[in-house]
Hints:
With 146 residues, the chain is an all-alpha fold. It has one domain (2-32, 50-128). The chain has 5 helices and no strands. The chain has helices at residues 2-29, 39-43, 54-78, 83-101, 110-128. The longest helix has 28 residues, at 2-29.
Amino acid sequence: MLRSLAALLVAVLVGLTAAKFVESAAFAAFDLPPIGESAASKVGGAPGKPAVSPAAAGVLTLSWLAAAFVAAGLALAIGRRWAPLGWLAAATIGFNAIVSLLGASAPFWVWPGGLLVSAAGGFLAVTAFRARYDYPAAAPKEEFFD
Length: 146
């Protein structure tokens, strides 16, 4: 049980780091302005919230897909390929996507898109790692302190 908790914590932290890396690399590669500094943020949107351009929203969605895949894959690798760990890691990335959208004025399609790509990343990781849904049995102990 402690291994599952550690797997989930490490996987989500590494997944969120991967999301930030993909996001920063894509913003630099496509020469996009930072969120809140685009022309759309000066035209409309909710007051006090930075506007997210459609291109930036696409980059965010791509970064959440990568984060969900990395987090689910790492959780499965550490947690002995137990499928619920992968799904839980991907769901945590999905919730992070929604929470991060609460502070910005983003296009509507990004909201369900964040959840869908997180589920897709989790599905891809569970499928790629051939995860099992039955809890892995512990190795039998020969001696008391083994």
